[in-house]
Write a structure and sequence with these properties.
- 49% of the residues lie in helices and 14% in strands.
- The chain is an alpha+beta fold.
- It has one domain.
- 18% of the residues are buried.
- The model has no long low-confidence stretch (mean pLDDT 84).
Length: 133
């Protein structure tokens, strides 16, 4: 997403492996029109994945489109009054926008993504705090 994420710059010093723990299984029923899966680590089978797998974890099916963590982050930051706000343009963005407008799924999805991300970064935070003491 960002070309040089701050976490990677800081972690060059500590060289910690960062794992994202969550419930990443995604099993919508056949022919389902809507399926949303929270990835928070207290729901379902918990697994550890690295950043690429985390970003590619599917969390929403809406009509013919499946959205993953990265899609939700990009949609939230680029379309829903995020840092780089602009209007929805593609069919996928417009489809997601129609669902989010009705269900508040953006808040629920981003909350779950933040919980998993903050838990993943806790070991790095503790290492940094050790150095500051």
């Amino acid at each position: 997403m960002d070309k040089h994420p701050l976490v990677h710059i800081v972690n060059r010093i500590y060289k910690l492996r960062i794992y994202f723990e969550g419930s990443f299984e995604f099993n919508p029923r056949p022919n389902a029109l809507l399926y949303w899966k929270s990835i928070e680590p207290f729901r379902g089978m918990i697994t550890k994945v690295e950043l690429p797998q985390f970003l590619k974890s599917n969390i929403l099916l809406f009509y013919d489109h499946i959205y993953n963590v990265q899609d939700i982050i990009q949609y939230t930051s680029h379309i829903t009054c995020g840092v780089h706000s602009q209007p929805a343009k593609t069919e996928r963005e417009l489809n997601l926008q129609s669902w989010i407008a009705d269900a508040g799924i953006s808040y629920m999805s981003i909350r779950a993504i933040c919980v998993v991300s903050l838990n993943a970064l806790l070991p790095l935070e503790l290492e940094i705090k050790k150095d500051l003491q």
